[in-house]
Amino acid sequence: MTAPDPAPRPQKIPVAVLGPTGYTGLELLEILARHPSMRIELLGSARTPSPRIDAEFPRLIGRLGPGVNAECEPIDHDAIARRCRLAFLCLPHEAAMEHTPPLLSRGVKVVDLSAAYRLRDAGVYEKAYGHHHTDPANLPRAVYGLAELARESLRGAELCANPGCYPTVAALALVPLLKAGLIKPAGIIINAASGVSGAGRQPKPNLHFPEANESYSAYGIGAHRHQPEIGQSLRVYSGRADVPDPLFVPHLLPVERGILETIYAEPAAAAVTTETLQAALQAAYAGEPFVVVRDEAPTLRDAQRTNTAHINARVVHGRVVIIGAEDNLVKGASGQAVQCANLMLGLDETAGLM
Amino acid sequence: MTAPDPAPRPQKIPVAVLGPTGYTGLELLEILARHPSMRIELLGSARTPSPRIDAEFPRLIGRLGPGVNAECEPIDHDAIARRCRLAFLCLPHEAAMEHTPPLLSRGVKVVDLSAAYRLRDAGVYEKAYGHHHTDPANLPRAVYGLAELARESLRGAELCANPGCYPTVAALALVPLLKAGLIKPAGIIINAASGVSGAGRQPKPNLHFPEANESYSAYGIGAHRHQPEIGQSLRVYSGRADVPDPLFVPHLLPVERGILETIYAEPAAAAVTTETLQAALQAAYAGEPFVVVRDEAPTLRDAQRTNTAHINARVVHGRVVIIGAEDNLVKGASGQAVQCANLMLGLDETAGLM
Amino acid sequence: MTAPDPAPRPQKIPVAVLGPTGYTGLELLEILARHPSMRIELLGSARTPSPRIDAEFPRLIGRLGPGVNAECEPIDHDAIARRCRLAFLCLPHEAAMEHTPPLLSRGVKVVDLSAAYRLRDAGVYEKAYGHHHTDPANLPRAVYGLAELARESLRGAELCANPGCYPTVAALALVPLLKAGLIKPAGIIINAASGVSGAGRQPKPNLHFPEANESYSAYGIGAHRHQPEIGQSLRVYSGRADVPDPLFVPHLLPVERGILETIYAEPAAAAVTTETLQAALQAAYAGEPFVVVRDEAPTLRDAQRTNTAHINARVVHGRVVIIGAEDNLVKGASGQAVQCANLMLGLDETAGLM
Amino acid sequence: MTAPDPAPRPQKIPVAVLGPTGYTGLELLEILARHPSMRIELLGSARTPSPRIDAEFPRLIGRLGPGVNAECEPIDHDAIARRCRLAFLCLPHEAAMEHTPPLLSRGVKVVDLSAAYRLRDAGVYEKAYGHHHTDPANLPRAVYGLAELARESLRGAELCANPGCYPTVAALALVPLLKAGLIKPAGIIINAASGVSGAGRQPKPNLHFPEANESYSAYGIGAHRHQPEIGQSLRVYSGRADVPDPLFVPHLLPVERGILETIYAEPAAAAVTTETLQAALQAAYAGEPFVVVRDEAPTLRDAQRTNTAHINARVVHGRVVIIGAEDNLVKGASGQAVQCANLMLGLDETAGLM
Lengths: 354, 354, 354, 354
What we know:
The structure is a homotetramer of 354-residue chains. Chain A has twelve helices and 13 strands. Chain A is of the alpha/beta class and 354 residues long. Chain A folds into two domains: 13-163 and 332-344, 3-Layer(aba) Sandwich (Rossmann fold); 166-328, Dihydrodipicolinate Reductase, domain 2, CATH 3.30.360.10.
């Protein structure tokens, strides 16, 4: 019907997506389908019978890219190693810890979208997630995938722990200000709000449309599993061991996607102004393709369905107030995973993401 | 804190609500709580342990009316008969057929919000609902609760089959036009759209917020269980046995509540005009408190959270197009149930409903 | 069609609603239409030609109560004084300052839903609202309408300044804790979120459906006009002049209505626990019909379309976190206005509101 | 920060977007920004002062592609001719008729997203749109941009009249069935529902969030401007001059985007079955990249944010019922515009659209 593209295409890198039937899986497939340098070689699912991904998500019919097989396969480490250079794991935490070691040992790079390898200390992990960490040996090997703060360590990494959705924009917003000494390390409050896709694809009473629609609520107040992850990022990337875990209060928004965080901190000194805050952020993110420092407060809409985080900081009423926005499924999950994979594979970091 | 109301209140009629933990139950409780002549005496639930209704729905805390016990009780026919004059059944169809006979035999009036007693022919019921009708003996006794079309038979009735949500506005819109001979009985198409509360409170994949939100879809195309109920109403209340079941195509709207039906019919004669249609509707509903004949097409919002059906009819492009709107939980369920109960108990029909 | 109610009804008190074409007006009319002791005698509008309120809001057709004239009239102080005992003003601030003095001087009680008489200091008002206060003489006469904190002064009051939507739940949540000395007066942060109806009925670019839908954003960060009103309430009702204005950061939620505030404060002492906080709130609101102290965090849905505020407080991570929810149009506006009017007219405070 | 892409990129074709500040403009820019063979050379706006497009839509900041100037320019035909090979017109109808002739005469190809050149008969246009057609001379030159039904005439065309949103999926659904003689030409009813973005970016009372949210309504019943466009397409592409304009009844959905049409027709013969209908559709669209014939009814979600139309047809209850879904801003506007431009410029038809 249309003439074949005459120009010989450069060989694309074959990748696997394991656990593609959730929302991060769907988003990842949409990104990979138009990636100029990767192609979806294999979809791996633990479900029996193996689902067709375009029956799960009819919007994918005919949109996975030329030659891509929409039928999932059982997860077979040897097959993945034979056919793919990298695997994205959109699996539950426990399954991620099960499949990562055999993939790594077979030479397959892994970008893990679960929380399995995010926390450097297995004890902190076990406390936050309530189950045993079955692969502590690979924790030191895992690179936390926040490219803007740890780009060099991602180049050539074998295992990437893709950051959590809430921690991504929290770290991007706060680290430069902590590093610059503009805000006090203690007393930080992160009031966050996320779309419902962040809670996953499993139906639950509080996520039933007539309950979640037109509502809004706080949950996991000061007890959410992302709180220690945020604390770790603030300490590691600011280089300040004295930063305690902030108080993190997430809320459920009646929208499909997006995270907006309203962050409160105390200025480190009377000389801290809106201008000094913004200047520190602008200096930190000059040239970054996926962080925009805004002059006004960003909205959720500004960031939705993009891999860009938007940040604005100000001093008001004697406090520092920072607004950060991102898409929880893109910059907060699958977009960032592709950004990390691009670096791990030596590709243009922005490939497939603009 | 506030002075007790000095005026001696007239004794309110005690009623039971069985199965109050669904959306029709919630709506019914909100209506009954401010009803001037009924009070909630008993909440009956088959669940073990018996739930507190204000734990199920925290919005009911302190709002059930003075002295109402928020704790549900197991369904006990003798207790109900001892304490209540009427029971509203917000139960599954099968449970309604189980509890109705013992309640009636104990002298308790029943308003059944399920479909158990709506279809006069048990065979039609069994085909539509896919299970056996276990109480055909009471079918002849059941009065279909469309007060605007069958008011007199409701006064003093013992058993009311409260109409389905979609059939209510469909019958109200079409019966006067059929009776007046303005539209052809065959070829009627009812394109309907309902809010998600119509699908119940049980979480399901297609009702999960991230799926239903921002979406819209047809379902049960020409095969919905309300299709024969609509056909029956059209025949019974127009007095025309020649009206076939219309084609009924419901759709799921991403809203909590409300039904809007766009109905297509053929004019019975060339002389049929917008004016003759509207005049027939106005004549049929003059003085009716809960039906408004509108000069323009009503919106869903016009009818939401009211017991009023809004109807507009026109001839356009050689067709009759009727738009009808109602709230599926009020006029399409619990409001209409109270309207029927008012009539059954000899109260002002509008009590608690304006 | 229905038999007239045989019982002779007690005479209802005639009231006026001025400016009924906005969302607070609509909500007020819905409440008054079913109020047992007030009736809508007169709708006053500055618009020419005078609108019919049920053309503005078709959902009101036939629902305003028996004998109510749906046609608005020009605002005529003498006519109001002749026919009504009380007037609800749902007018712009400036118009409220214009109409209040002539109504009061004619003996009409006034419940003003604008901000005109909320701030005791005309200078603070002028700074917050950016225009001149044209009726400072009546400021000392105005009773701030927070019945739970100032009930006695409302009984028999002539002029009620109905509280702002955000300040209502903020004051209800914080005052008992300040009074009990459980939280520090300084450093309070109120992170609030409101449905779009709070922004009024005038179409604006950021409130256009495709912009506001699926979005979420902060606005008026630390600069909202309700910030000084909240500060005033905290000082007046806690009896502590040392409470500075808190930092108030409102957000726009993609829902029609409801306000949820997530409030952060510092415990006044190490001995402050979740239990002491909750006990103070429970003691403050025991017997109150419109405040519920919850054991868990309330959701927006819990409070929507009710006159009830829901509050929960806890100590977490070394901070006090309070979640308060209300409906911005009911407890935050028109419901509270009726609650105040009930008190001003010597009626049962809960009449029409349960 | 990231290494420059080492591979020399093929020269991209420079294009202009005139009127980029509406929703079709935004969608077009998002598509063009990742198009492999076109680049945004010029944004033309009639507004003064010329807006920055990334101030209008902050989500575009840094996402327009390398070297693209986000500042709009006044519309200058010579500048466009000097710098661009093709212009997309996202302008009002009247402005499109003004700018198209000078652009064509300067050798610039035009894809017009307005309705200016869609109707072949200027008289029909004037009746539908209520204003004079100022460029009838170019009507015969305009190619209606429905690639699936008129691909060859688009290759090399100079002027493309990009189809209306509703007419696109209506024609795709009905033309194959009319051509195959499976449905009767008369009596077709198109019950359609669209997201609010279809109504444009200008705030209006009925599109104000608190009005459109949670509502649903019919509008332009049998009188919408797309009705004659649909009729024209059915006649032209089915080759049957006897097809009257169908009855078209659009509805406003409370979602951002997407169109779902529920189409009713009469089978042409008793032998017409679901299977014959589906077979005709499958035959018509075999190999088409942007039309999917589905075995079950598609949902709005299936098509949103894709350039794919989803279609399902069945015989039920003696009627043909067809469900078609598309995204009004993509396949119904900007995606289809790029599809047409790809053909006009000799590019891969799917470039930038998968």
